[in-house]
Specification:
This protein is α/β, with parallel strands linked by helices. It has one domain (2-223): NAD(P)-binding Rossmann-like Domain (Rossmann fold, 3-Layer(aba) Sandwich), CATH 3.40.50.720. The protein has helices at residues 8-19, 31-41, 53-62, 87-114, 136-155, 175-179, 184-191, 199-210, and strands at 2-3, 25-28, 44-47, 68-71, 118-123, 161-168, 220-223. Bound molecules: 2-hydroxyethylsulfonic acid. The site of 2-hydroxyethylsulfonic acid has 7 residues, from loops.
Length: 239
């Protein structure tokens, strides 16, 4: 089960898990784009808006069994300093990145546990490890989801459910285009002069984490491009 699977890391993860032999179910708001991902790999596509409790309930009821949940849906909005923070953007980021994970995880937990070998994966971010100027709203949300992941790990200890967090750095997807409200030039500048990670690189990490033997819990995996040593330390080649 992969959330936010209509593009980027979610889509790449769905494709990769299908290739690994998983029976994949994907959820996202954009159903037409979701089908473009799901249909070629024989995955089941279900509408899912992680910000809408009713949508999550309907989604969880439609999913049959579930052994692996990849909480990928989320993202950033804006890069504004705290002094001009936009409440709506902050609220949306908290809704999608934190409450979204909580709702879907809570809804699927009985099925994950009943599988006898459940696994909850959260796609976090380097932004959840290291705040940076302009990032406060997204930093707060990703720090929040990191706390949820840690608490889940403690609460589920002794039960047959693993909990893992994967924290990527710069990955070139629609992430920055969405963050900058569709400004493709500004989004491209984020990765200029670097070789960023691809969505497939992160999907590779997810596949590795969920194919370890049942007794192995990868708690946290931080993955950055070679050109990035921290959220703000980026090496750029000049043309
Ligand atoms: C994306 C990483 O550094 O652009 O989650 O916030 S960053």
């Amino acid at each position: 089960m992969v959330t936010g699977a209509s593009s980027g890391i979610g889509a790449a993860t769905a494709r990769r898990l299908a290739a690994e032999g998983f029976d994949v179910v994907v959820g996202a708001r954009r159903l037409d784009r979701l089908h473009e991902v799901a249909d070629p790999i024989g995955a089941r596509a279900l509408p899912l808006d992680v910000c809408d409790a009713d949508s999550v309930t309907a989604f969880c009821e439609a999913v049959g069994g579930c052994r692996v949940l990849v909480n990928n849906a989320g993202g950033a909005l804006g890069l504004d300093p705290v002094e001009s923070a936009d409440d709506d953007q902050w609220r949306q980021m908290y809704e999608a990145n934190v409450l979204g994970v909580v709702r879907v995880t809570r809804g699927l937990l009985p099925r994950l546990e009943a599988s006898g070998d459940g696994h909850i994966v959260v796609i976090g971010s380097v932004a959840g490890l290291e705040p940076y100027p302009g990032g406060a709203g997204y930093n707060a949300a990703k720090h929040g989801v990191r706390a949820v992941r840690q608490v889940l790990r403690y609460e589920l200890l002794g039960r047959p459910v693993r909990v893992s967090e994967i924290d990527p750095g710069m990955v070139e997807t629609e992430f920055s285009v969405v963050r900058f409200g569709g400004d493709r030039e500004r989004a491209a500048a984020v990765y200029a002069g670097t070789t960023p990670l691809t969505a497939d690189d992160v999907a590779d990490c997810v596949a590795w984490v969920v194919t370890r033997p049942s007794h192995v819990n990868v708690d946290q995996l931080v993955v950055l491009p070679r050109d990035q040593a921290s959220a703000t330390r980026v090496h750029r080649r000049t043309p």
